[in-house]
């Protein structure tokens, strides 16, 4: 078992010190050591996307990423996107058509959608599905997720 | 929101209204209804059903008593009050009530009941408050009350052009006598300004800010994290435990052995690992050396159940659930007989937020934070099994990451309470991992049906029989494994026989979204599709024929729609509508693409659905689903209503495509979403909904759209490929 170590993580633009074993998934360090509740636990196995955060802007499954492997990469959670212009567009679209039902998966959906649009501002319907495929919504909000991403990307209805 | 002096109490046969002044200025109004005699345990005592406060700034606070599980009731019920109060929806704040049985009746989510029960009383409460505000304006100005009107949170006097905000009037309104509820004037539905208009869920924005709203988000200083190691097989008992390695592991605070209490819906024998972080607890759990006695589950395997069901079908045994005429004799003389067997597996709820509960026990008092659909159940069980009196329990109902029926059980509350009681003074969050959540569920039970139908020379359905092999005890099917004697086509075919055989099981069973219906719709509508074909018709044609005469099947118990009353004309309405919408008459046939139809009536909702599917080898693609729905006279929140319907359909399709819980000797074989697949975005079809508005009491939407989606899909697969799906799931996974 790895030693208890101190890690300095860059989370949402701030340096945060975490005392944890190096194999602790980033998910549990963020939720329970740093008190960030936006990142959610769904499967713990990379199968649902509820725990999606950005690592240097790319979506990763924080349930599979050991805190010891994060290094100096910048970690962004939903809390860290609150003043981000692209995220604002997503939030507005999400509220405009009331995407969420229980809401539990939605942080992960937003994180993945944000990474998609940052990379590809006008994705096709097929590209949206491909990017969002790893994010499960148990409530089945998929039609509105598609629609909200379309609205946020400023595209006309097909 | 402290209520000050109580002022007026008005009683009538049905409801009590009490009015008080708010401590900081303003009015508060509580509506209390007599018990609705929903079940034996509901005494006819009055319970608070709505609480509305208007403060002096004009802000309106409505307390939502029902837990929110993603069905949107926390939005739609307050909409009913706000509509009749005639205030601006944007000024309404909705807060979640803590569990308080002395104040709230029926504090639960589930059964698509909310809208059905509260349509009238919620509106009356709003209308009563509005009437008192009008009276207050009349008193203040000395003008007759009849000269005033309301709009968007203001009382207007048209002749003088004067207006008063609700906030200005709230103090004076609190001193008005509370009106007789049975005589408050309700709006003409054509004047509705909130009901029927899309409203965004009241907490949506907070979810997007990442606020801690869900049970799992509960956090407090010094909180510990617990995981449970439970028996590998259902019904298992702990024989011996070596916990030394786990105790020594990093972050571990305690390892506790707990004896099972109260059966699987409370707590089985288990070992809890309590640590400073969930991850440490999970790691230490792997170091436990436990020996289990799993003999109770010997032989309880899905394959064995299937074999037993086949044996029962072959023996044509079973007790009679319903017998009309002489179906056996009529089958013998029929021109054509169609026979088929249909089966479906056990499936799990798989809420995305795994079961969890946070509890703190101090000085004999228990405080809990739980994502629960039925708070009273947990509190009652904890009182009974752990000896903590209900009045020493405080329960905070958190937002819930998916219910689907799973959180009607309170096992996780009992377990968290037991842990907290064992470690007084320490807040403990118990959280299950996904494998545990899949393994410790109360499953939708599997079932096996052996059908026969007799047709006359002209293709008329003259006899129908179903022999249903299901689960329960003492010869009685479990509530969630039962079938109603009024099930379609009962009452519409003169010679009909339903028989039932009940098998024992150790696998826990429970209601899953549209309980019973989520399985029966597929079996019956799938078989009837075969019958229709043999009769030279199609399924919707056969259904319209059976429903041709306007009939009411079953009893509409006490007018609340709680019975199984089924109205043929409402079925016809949605069937005709969906056929028109999808262009059924001109549908493509063969060539790997086809349309399939399914109809079902459940939870007072009538749903006809058509799926457009292509089949290529093993691959099934659903392109589109058309839905026609009759849930009565109003769709309270169209935005929420559409979400419920599309969600239910996506759910149903995923269940049918790949979901199956299997087990050998009581050991559940699926653990995570790789072997128990949920719907994903790429598999999501376009969904087109038509509301068929009829003059009936509005009913709920959380469930009834799901059942017909499954036969629509399986019947479409047949139309596209010629392959009958008589066993679910469609694609078998490991
Ligand atoms: S919790 Fe990480 S992918 Fe599901
Ligand atoms: S909104 Fe409930 S899981 Fe997506």
What does this structure look like?
The complex is a heterodimer of chains A (158) and B (734). Chain A is an alpha+beta fold. Chain A has two domains: 5-80, Beta-grasp domain (Ubiquitin-like (UB roll)); 83-152, DNA polymerase, domain 1. Chain A is 34% helix and 17% strand. Chain A contains five helices and five strands, in the order ββαβββαααα. Chain A has helices spanning 26-33, 85-96, 106-119, 125-132, 142-152; strands spanning 4-11, 14-21, 52-55, 58-61, 74-76. In chain A, helix 2 packs across helix 3 (106-119) and helix 2 (85-96) packs across helix 5 (142-152). Chain A is elongated, with a radius of gyration of 16 Å. Chain A starts with a strand and ends in a 6-residue tail after the last helix. The mean pLDDT of chain A is 95. Chain B has 734 residues and is an alpha+beta fold. Chain B has three domains: 16-208, Aldehyde oxidase/xanthine dehydrogenase, molybdopterin binding domain (Aldehyde Oxidoreductase, domain 4, 2-Layer Sandwich), CATH 3.30.365; 215-295 and 355-431, Aldehyde Oxidoreductase, domain 4 (2-Layer Sandwich); 302-347 and 443-732, Aldehyde oxidase/xanthine dehydrogenase, molybdopterin binding domain (Aldehyde Oxidoreductase, domain 4, 2-Layer Sandwich), CATH 3.30.365.10. In chain B, 27% of the residues lie in helices and 28% in strands. Chain B is built from 16 helices and 32 strands. In chain B, the strands form eight sheets. Chain B has a seven-stranded mixed β-sheet, sandwiched between helices. Chain B has a six-stranded mixed β-sheet with strand order 1-2-3-4-5-6, covered by helices on one side. In chain B, strands 15, 16, 21, 22, 23 and 24 form a six-stranded mixed β-sheet that branches. In chain B, a hairpin with a 3-residue loop joins strand 2 (16-22) and strand 3. Chain B is globular, with a radius of gyration of 28 Å. Chain B starts with a strand and ends in a 13-residue tail after the last helix. The complex binds FE2/S2 (inorganic) cluster (FES) (2 copies).
